[in-house]
C-alpha cells in the first residue's frame, strides 16, 4: 500500500500542465469500439481508471496500441465477445459506458454492475430507462447488467434527473439506432460535449450537446477519426485550490477557462486573484482566505467533484462557510479525516457548516475516495508539519503524477510504500 507523505507550509509557485479529462476519456474510449476502423485518441490521462478500461476492452477483443503515454489507437473490429468480464471493471463506475457503446453497435452487451468511488448510492435506472425506450430488454443477473435489442430504434427520452452517465450512454446507443432520439433534461457538462464531438467526428449525427436537449439521428456505421480529449477541469480545479490554500501563484496550462468558470468565481469570493488566458489560467492565493457559501450543481454550476477541495480551503478561511452537496449524499466522508488535522466542520445531512481555523496540523489520514483524497493532499500542503495520506490508490484512479506535479511547484511530497520510507522522509525533512 502506498502513501503520500507531505511536509506542509510551502508556498506553491510555478507552472503546471493539465492532462486530458478522465471522465471524457472513459466514454470516448468505450465509444471508439463502435467502428471497425482504427481510431486515434490523444491527450489521454495515464491513470488507473483509464488503464482498467483499456484492459477490459482488450478482454472483449478490441485491439489497443499505445503510441505513447497519452496516445492510443483502438480498433474494435475484433470485438466478438459482448461480455465484459474484467475484475477491474467492477471497481470502476465507467464500465457502464461499454453498455451503451456495445448495445449501439452490436445490439447486445453484458457488463458487470458498476462500482467506483464510495460517494453514495449510484443507481443507473436512467441509463436503463433510455435503453428500454429504444427497444432494448435489460436485466441484472449474477452481478451483470444485460441489455439486448432485436432492433434499437430512436425514442423521446426525458431524464428524471440530470445525469452525465445516462446522457452519454443513451447518446452512444442512439448514435447507431434506427431513427431519431431526443434526450430532454440532458447533462451539459463539457465531457458530454466532448463525447458528442468525438462521435460526430466518427460520422454520428448529434446536435444540441451542451444544452439540455440533445437530438441524435441514428446512422448505420461509424468510421475512423483522430481526436484529442479536452483538458481535465477537475484536475485543473484541484491545482487552483492548491494555489489558494498555500498563498501560492500557479499558472495552469492546457485548460479551457470557460469550463472552470464556476471554480474561478468561487476562488474570487475566497479572496484569490484569477487571470484567464486563451488556454491557461493563473491563480494567486491571498494571505488569508475569506469564507463563502457553495452548493454543488450540475454544469454550469459548481461541480460536486470539486466540493472536497473547496471545503478544505474554506476550513482555513476567516469566518463560517456553508457547503451544500446536492448531487451525491455520501460525499462528506473526508470530514472526520480533516478534523484530525484540526478542521472544524459539522455535517448535517447534505450540509457542512465549516468554521475556519487559523491553521491545520499534519496528521495521518486516509483517502476515502478520489476527489476527497486529493483534497486531503491539499490540506497537507497547507498544514504545519507532516501529513501522511493513506489509500492513495483512490487518488491515482484519476490524477496522473499528482505528487510529481506538486513537487515541481515547490511542495515537499513523496510517494512512499513502507513505514521505513516514511521514517526516512521524516528524518530527511526534519
Ligand atoms: C459522473 O458520474 C462522473 N463519473 C463523476 O465523477 C461525477 O461526480 C458525476 O458525473 C457528476 O458530475 C464519470 O464520469 C465516470 P451522474 P455519474 O449520473 O455519471 C443520480 C469523479 O470523481 N442518478 O451525473 O455516475 C446519481 O445518483 C467521479 O471523477 C440516478 O439517480 O453521475 C446522482 O445523484 C465521481 N439514476 C445524480 O443522478 C441514474 O440512472 C448525478 O449522477 C443516474 C444518476
Describe the protein's architecture and organization.
With 430 residues, this protein is an alpha+beta fold. It folds into two domains: 3-19 and 231-429, UDP-n-acetylglucosamine1-carboxyvinyl-transferase, Chain (Alpha-beta prism); 22-228, Enolpyruvate transferase domain (UDP-n-acetylglucosamine1-carboxyvinyl-transferase, Chain), CATH 3.65.10.10. It has 15 helices and 23 strands. The chain has helices at residues 22-31, 48-59, 87-91, 97-106, 125-133, 164-175, 190-201, 233-245, 261-269, 307-314, 335-339, 370-382, 393-396, 402-408, 419-429; strands at residues 3-7, 13-17, 38-42, 63-68, 71-75, 108-112, 137-141, 144-148, 156-158, 180-184, 205-207, 213-217, 226-228, 249-253, 273-276, 280-284, 294-295, 320-324, 344-348, 351-355, 364-366, 386-390, 412-416. A four-stranded mixed beta sheet has the order 21-22-1-23, with helices on both faces. The protein has a four-stranded mixed beta sheet with strand order 2-14-16-15. The protein starts with a strand and ends with a helix. The mean pLDDT is 95. Ligand EPZ binds next to α1, α5, α6 and α12.
What distinguishing features does this structure have?
UDP-n-acetylglucosamine1-carboxyvinyl-transferase, Chain, four-stranded mixed β-sheet, 430 residues, globular, binds ligand EPZ, alpha+beta, 2 domains
The gross shape turns out to be globular
Strands of the widest sheet, in order across it, are 21-22-1-23
Query: Could you name the CATH homologous superfamily of the largest domain?
Result: Enolpyruvate transferase domain
What share of the residues does DSSP label as strand, in percent? 15-25%
- CA distance, first residue to last residue: 24 Å
CATH architecture of the largest domain: Alpha-beta prism
Mean pLDDT: 95
Total DSSP helices:
15
Amino acid at each position: 500500500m502506498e502513501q503520500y507523505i507531505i511536509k506542509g507550509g510551502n508556498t506553491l509557485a510555478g507552472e503546471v500542465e493539465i492532462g486530458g479529462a478522465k471522465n471524457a476519456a472513459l466514454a470516448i474510449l468505450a465509444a471508439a469500439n463502435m467502428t471497425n476502423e482504427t481510431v486515434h485518441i490523444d491527450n489521454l490521462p495515464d491513470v488507473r481508471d483509464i488503464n482498467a478500461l483499456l484492459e477490459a476492452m482488450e478482454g472483449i477483443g478490441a485491439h489497443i496500441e499505445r503510441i505513447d503515454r497519452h496516445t492510443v489507437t483502438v480498433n474494435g473490429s475484433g470485438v466478438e465477445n459482448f461480455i465484459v468480464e474484467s475484475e477491474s471493471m467492477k471497481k470502476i463506475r465507467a464500465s457502464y459506458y461499454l453498455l451503451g457503446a456495445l448495445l449501439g453497435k452490436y445490439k447486445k452487451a453484458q457488463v458487470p454492475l458498476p462500482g467506483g468511488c464510495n460517494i453514495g448510492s449510484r443507481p443507473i435506472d436512467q441509463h436503463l430507462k433510455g435503453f428500454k425506450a429504444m427497444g432494448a430488454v435489460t436485466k441484472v443477473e449474477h452481478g451483470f447488467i444485460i441489455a439486448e435489442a432485436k432492433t434499437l430504434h430512436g425514442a423521446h427520452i426525458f431524464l428524471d434527473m440530470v445525469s452525465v452517465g445516462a446522457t452519454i450512454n443513451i447518446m452512444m446507443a442512439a448514435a447507431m439506432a434506427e431513427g431519431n432520439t431526443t434526450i430532454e433534461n440532458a447533462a451539459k457538462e463539457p465531457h458530454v460535449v466532448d463525447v458528442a464531438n468525438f462521435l460526430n467526428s466518427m460520422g454520428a449525427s448529434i446536435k444540441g450537446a451542451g444544452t439540455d436537449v440533445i437530438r441524435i439521428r441514428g446512422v448505420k456505421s461509424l468510421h475512423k477519426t483522430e481526436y484529442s480529449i479536452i483538458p481535465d477541469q477537475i484536475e485543473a480545479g484541484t491545482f487552483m485550490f492548491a494555489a489558494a490554500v498555500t498563498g501560492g501563484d500557479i499558472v495552469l496550462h492546457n485548460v479551457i477557462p470557460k469550463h472552470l468558470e464556476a471554480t474561478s468565481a468561487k476562488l474570487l469570493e475566497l479572496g484569490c486573484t484569477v487571470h484567464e488566458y486563451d488556454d491557461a489560467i493563473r491563480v494567486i492565493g491571498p494571505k488569508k482566505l475569506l469564507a463563502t457559501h457553495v452548493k454543488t450543481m450540475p454544469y454550469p454550476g459548481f461541480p460536486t467533484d470539486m466540493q472536497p477541495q473547496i471545503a478544505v480551503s474554506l476550513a482555513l478561511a476567516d469566518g463560517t462557510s456553508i457547503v451544500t452537496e446536492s448531487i451525491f449524499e455520501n460525499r462528506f466522508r473526508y470530514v472526520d479525516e480533516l478534523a484530525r488535522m484540526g478542521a472544524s466542520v459539522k455535517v448535517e445531512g447534505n450540509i457542512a457548516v465549516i468554521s475556519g481555523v487559523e491553521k491545520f496540523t499534519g496528521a495521518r489520514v486516509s483517502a476515502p475516495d478520489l476527489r476527497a483524497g486529493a483534497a486531503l493532499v491539499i490540506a497537507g500542503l497547507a498544514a504545519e508539519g507532516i501529513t501522511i495520506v493513506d489509500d492513495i490508490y483512490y487518488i491515482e484512479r484519476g490524477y496522473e503524477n499528482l505528487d510529481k506535479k506538486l513537487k515541481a511547484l515547490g511542495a515537499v511530497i513523496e510517494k512512499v510504500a513502507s513505514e521505513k520510507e516514511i521514517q526516512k522522509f521524516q528524518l530527511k525533512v526534519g
